[in-house]
From TrEMBL:
This is Protein translocase subunit SecE. It comes from Hymenobacter montanus. GO terms for cellular component: plasma membrane. The keyword Iron-sulfur does not apply. The lineage of its organism: Bacteria, Pseudomonadati, Bacteroidota, Cytophagia, Cytophagales. One of its GO terms (biological process) is protein targeting. It is found in: Cell membrane; Membrane. The keyword Cell membrane applies. GO terms for molecular function: protein transmembrane transporter activity.
Length: 64
């Protein structure tokens, strides 16, 4: 039990004094980049899905 409490104490000390936390403006910029990147990725995947769907429909309809 002593090892576990030492581990948690060391973890709290590390997080308080040794970790460099980003500022609020850095967090906002990063969040904006993640949002924009996610939207671009979703649009690209959506366009690919629609394209493959129409290509496969045309392919399958050619055998009717």
């Amino acid at each position: 039990m002593d090892k576990l409490s030492n581990y948690f104490r060391a973890t709290v000390e590390e997080m308080r004094y040794n970790v460099t936390w980003p500022s609020t403006t850095e967090l906002q910029k990063s969040a904006g980049l993640v949002l924009i990147g996610s939207l671009v990725f979703a649009i690209v995947v959506g366009v690919m899905d629609i394209s493959f769907e129409s290509i496969l429909k045309a392919f399958y309809n050619s055998f009717r």
